[in-house]
Amino acid sequence: MLEEKILAPDFTLPDQNYVNHKLSDYRGQWVLLYFYPADDTPGCTTEACNFKDNLPTFEDLKVKVFGISTDSVESHQEFVNKYSLNFTLLSDSEKEVVEKYEANGMVGTKRVSYLINPQGEIFKAYDKVKPENHVGEVLADLNSYPQ
């Protein structure tokens, strides 16, 4: 979808279980990085639960979903447990990845997402994310692209 091929910046971040994930380890499959402001807030909970409910569809399309915020690993653990989230949340407490992906806003993390193709290139950037319909938007894009 992006005309110019841009390699997604690599990073390593811990998940809600203190397991480190390196983006480049997921080459060969689609990856969705969705950045969100804070755990357990209304919009972020709506978005996370929509991903949870649609995760089987993402898995069928062989897409790895990562939620990223600057909240701590412990905060992510509580958020995952409270809403039975079934995908990986990454903690960027140092705000390094948020900055690399231009997700840093005036007051915290912006709600933006990046769909990364199996070659590690940014396929599409979503910079005006609405929590209630973002999942449908991403799935529509994936389904319109020949797999």
Structural key phrases:
peroxidase; about 150 residues; oxidoreductase; AhpC/TSA; 5-stranded mixed β-sheet; disulfide bond; two-stranded antiparallel sheet; alpha/beta
Provide a concise account of the structure shown.
This protein has 147 residues and is α/β, with parallel strands linked by helices. The chain is built from four helices and nine strands; from the N terminus they run βββαβαβαββββα. It has helices at residues 42-60, 73-83, 96-100, 134-144, and strands at 12-14, 20-22, 30-35, 63-69, 88-91, 104-105, 108-109, 113-116, 122-126.
How would you describe the overall organization of this protein?
- The mean pLDDT is 94.
- Helix content is 31%, strand content 24%.
- The two termini are 14 Å apart.
- The chain has a single domain, classed as Glutaredoxin, CATH 3.40.30.
- With 147 residues, it is α/β, with parallel strands linked by helices.
What is the C-alpha radius of gyration, as a whole number of Å?
Answer: 14 Å
Task: Report the total helices.
Answer: 4
Number of DSSP E strands: 9
- CATH level-4 homologous superfamily: Glutaredoxin
Overall CATH class: Alpha Beta
Which fold name is given in CATH as the topology?
Glutaredoxin
* Helicity range: 25-40%
Spatial shape: globular
Would you list the SSEs in sequence order as H and E? EEEHEHEHEEEEH
- Class based on secondary structure composition and strand pairing: alpha/beta
Tell me the strand order in the biggest sheet: 5-4-3-8-9
Q: What characterizes the major β-sheet?
A: 5 strands, mixed
**Mean of all residue-level pLDDT scores:** 94
CATH architecture: 3-Layer(aba) Sandwich
Distance between the termini: 14 Å
> Which runs of at least 5 residues are low in confidence (pLDDT < 50)?
none
- Structurally, the number of domains stands at 1
Strand content: 15-25%
